[in-house]
Design goal:
Layout lengths: L2 H14 L2 H12 L13 H7 L5 H7 L3 H8 L29 E6 L3 H16 L3 E2 L8 E6 L4 H19 L9 E6 H6 L1 H6 L5 E3 L7 H8 L5 E3 L22 E5 L1 E2 L10 H5 L3 E2 L2 H13 L4 E5 L7 E2 L28 E2 H11 L4 E5 L8 H9 L6 E3 L7 H7 L5 H14 L4 E8 L6 H14 L3 E6 L7 H5 L6 H22 L8 E8 L6 E5 L5 E5 L3 E3 L2 E6 L6 E9 L8 E10 L5 H7 L2
Parallel strand pairs: 1-2, 1-3, 3-4, 4-5, 5-6, 7-10, 10-13, 14-15, 15-16, 19-23, 20-23
Antiparallel strand pairs: 8-9, 11-12, 17-18, 17-22, 18-19, 20-21, 22-23
GO cellular component, one term: mitochondrion
InterPro entries: Elp3/MiaA/NifB-like_rSAM, Methylthiotransferase, Methylthiotransferase_CS, Methylthiotransferase_N, Methylthiotransferase_N_sf, MiaB_methiolase, rSAM, rSAM_horseshoe
Organism: Bos indicus (Zebu)
Amino acid sequence: MHPFQCVLRARRCLRRGPLASVSWLLLRTCRAHSSVPSSACPSPQRQQEDGVWKDFSSRLATGPTFQDFLRSASVPPEQPSSSEVEDPPPYLTVDELLGRQRRVYLETYGCQMNVNDTEIAWSILQKSGYRRTSNLQEADVILLVTCSIREKAEQTIWNRLHQLKSLKSKRLRSRVPLRIGILGCMAERLKEEILNREKMVDILAGPDAYRDLPRLLAVAESGQQAANVLLSLDETYADVMPVQTSPSATSAFVSIMRGCDNMCSYCIVPFTRGRERSRPVASILEEVRKLSEQGLKEVTLLGQNVNSFRDNSEVQFNNAVSTNLSRGFSTNYKAKQGGLRFAHLLDQVSRIDPEMRIRFTSPHPKDFPDEVLQLIRERDNICKQIHLPAQSGSSRVLEAMRRGYSREAYVELIHHIRESIPGVSLSSDFIAGFCGETEEDHLQTVSLLREVQYNIGFLFAYSMRQKTRAYHRLKDDIPEEVKLRRLEELITVFREEATKANKSFVGCTQLVLVEGPSKRSAADLCGRNDGNLKVIFADVEMEDATDSGLRVRAQPGDYVLVKEMWQSLNSANPGSMGGVSLMRFIRRDTRMWLFSSSQ
């Protein structure tokens, strides 16, 4: 048996068996590969022949100890520098694990979590000696961070691979071979199917395997395909500081938890991201402090179920009582006890920098207890905007989706949120054409859109995914043309109602965080208000709040007061507003002036 196989077998035992059996396995499988002569560990037959029975403790002392294999199986607390790679596998040298200044091109598809994953992956590769490039033609390594939430998302990646195939085949022999990798959820879902279908793919890395990227790339350099799609029960990358992919960014994503335990019947996330686990509060606060010191003005806390956050790393909080769910909501899993919850984290994050906006996504409606709503209302720098995925307006469909609530409970929560946080902006997700959805179910979703009047919406036709409960228990019985027709009807109604909802901003003065030039016109700037609505205004000189006699142009990261708000003429995007810039602020200390000026 190869020494590396010994380590793999040891790791499997560490996951599932008692320590005694692990020690026995390590002694049985690995002594033959240690530097100790074979005579030091004779077989039972040899012992009988020689008549020599050595004391077990003396034999154990001459070979590898159990701690040697614990070190191999555990994740080191800090990533080594590019010049110091610790404990390479026996089939690789330290030098082979280094990037040697090879250039990496990263493409990101899908959700905000994938944006954050890209920054984590790049942080790890950068420490191993790789360089980043934005030029596809000069890349030595191309990595696609992928999404699997719908069939269309995966088809986008297959199409991209076909485009990259010619780039790889035309690679000059004078250059190092081009390596292509698939990272994230699609790698986790399809695994070897990708390697078998597209021979030009060199590496696969699931969402919990980014630490292994230097090794995977080193193996690929030998001409072999390499993959690590193991899911973890504890990987949160808490010790990896993501590297911002855009040097001019004014905002950042901070991952606070990974995975999902909700097991909604339509959702692939638990199978591509694994079980829920949360980062220690201390590591999150440290990352937010560093981002504040770098001058960033907005942080979005990320998680598949961000408000289900529960830090169990500090023993003194593990006996705390469980937090109440939203009224009328339930879970698909046994109630969890103890730990520091989302309200505590949100409180601590908002105290780090009062000038930094705080957002969070994507939450589950079940985890909005009163303490979270009260905190959002009281803290000026926590944005008054909540994403509240409904998925359907039919209680019957919600039950089939295993969402843990009825339409009535969801609407009651909407009313409670609006009473608790006056002026709050609401957004939501909806799925059209889920298994067994009738026309009556569809009309109930239409009526929910009209009743709630969301400011922002994300609507999609249902796409069945393998491994999900719906795939095994339900039938995808809605014809594609019916799904698309229902989707178009939902989009139409959403736009009508969002236009009405966003009229409340017309004529008001809003505090906008400038993001950069507008995509529509170089003469305009674009930013977002507290409710996450896009605001476009002219890039002209304006008064500076710090010096009333000074005229300045706003820069990305500045706060600008925008008056005389009006709705965009682009009816396809009712969440876009226009306005006239009034004054630039470096800080957010404008709230009292803003309120008094808008009376």
